[in-house]
Amino acid sequence: MMRSESQDSLRATNALLTGLDRTRSYPNLIFLCTSNMLESLDSAFLDRCGLKRSVDPPSFASQYEILRSRTQKLIARGVIRSPEVLPFYIDADLDSDAGKANAGSKLLALVKLIRSGNAHSQSGTEISARSLTQLPEQAILRYLREEECDLDLALKFFERFVLTEQSQSKRYEDKGANYEDDAEEFEGIELRGRKRNLKIVLEEDSTIDKLEEVLAELRRRAKEMTGQVKKQVGDVKEVKEVPL
Length: 244
What we know:
By secondary structure, the chain is mainly alpha-helical. It folds into two domains: 3-47; 60-224, no CATH class. The chain is built from eight helices and two strands. It has helices at 3-22, 43-47, 60-76, 89-97, 103-119, 129-143, 151-175, 208-241; strands spanning 190-191, 194-195. A two-stranded antiparallel sheet has the order 1-2. α3 packs across α5 (103-119), α3 packs across α6 (129-143) and α5 runs parallel beside α7 (151-175). It starts with a helix and ends with a helix. Residues 179-205 have low confidence and may be disordered.
């Protein structure tokens, strides 16, 4: 760290501590602070914190509920076509124990797959709630090749996405590379076996609205392609009917 940067950091820390001390006369004022760099927090700042709590990664049940709620939202928005409502964790766990091969059991198996990958990871880090929230949209954006997506197909995309990410992560760990510095290349969307010039950029803040725009574009291009084929067929018929 440069000397100027160290001095700036010290001044900022002192200003924060002074500001906190000045708020002691306000009994109804509460500060909520979060950080994922506990080792870098100033000890004087920690002394001024009245209550400190550690927020661990989501539990098994929480991971299922995150994926369930996000997938259910995609169903409600029409991105995934399905009349089925995904069960809550308790019901899905009972169905899984009973050997039922329904959507809840498949989603529960996906969570087990994610956790097994975390257990074998050399870095020892677990998947975050943010990554779980983005997983359904990113999986559909990456693998969807039709203008329609049912729930069974979406769950297959989720599993494929997880396996691919785990495989790539293991490969980069073995090579000693930083996985976050590499980005997967997209050649475009393949619609019904034909490559289309539709590029998708998966950003960290990928949303359902972005996914809906992509699917709408796919459907629009599919209609245009169908219209062009019909027009070409009509032109061929007209040529054949011209008398010699």
